Structure of Acyl-CoA thioesterase:
Amino acid sequence: MAKADFAFFHRLRVRWSEVDMQAIVFNGNYLNYFDVAFTEYWRAIGLPNVIAQAAEGKELFARKSTVEYMAPARFDDELDVGVRCASLGRSSLQFVLEIYLGENHLISGELVYVYADTEKRKAVAVTDEWREIISSYETHAPVDIRP
């Protein structure tokens, strides 16, 4: 992907507590960066936050996360984390994330969530309203992978 493929970026600065003995960001922290950026994406496009979802008895459950490392980030770097919804299934949402330092692509990742009934812990359909909000926000419309 290219940086231009993302309609949303969240900027964050690497803190001292996030680097390891090699003076680079400890690998597990990139998932935290993804989570923060995903939360800000969700807020920016106006979808209900986790508290509102829980009140309705539905939530997004994490199904898959991947991280691919191209180059490290270091203490005090200002990173731009791009978030893009790549596909929407009946109950699943796939997000592609990339981390940049300026124009340098450092990290790629994927987050897959399943929208589910909290009590039954069973998948439910992503609402048409959510589909419309996400699709209208994205630069490239998410692929519809419903069966």
Q: What stands out?
A: The mean pLDDT is 96. Strands lie at 8-13, 58-69, 78-88, 92-101, 104-117, 122-123, 143-144. DSSP finds three helices and seven strands in the chain.
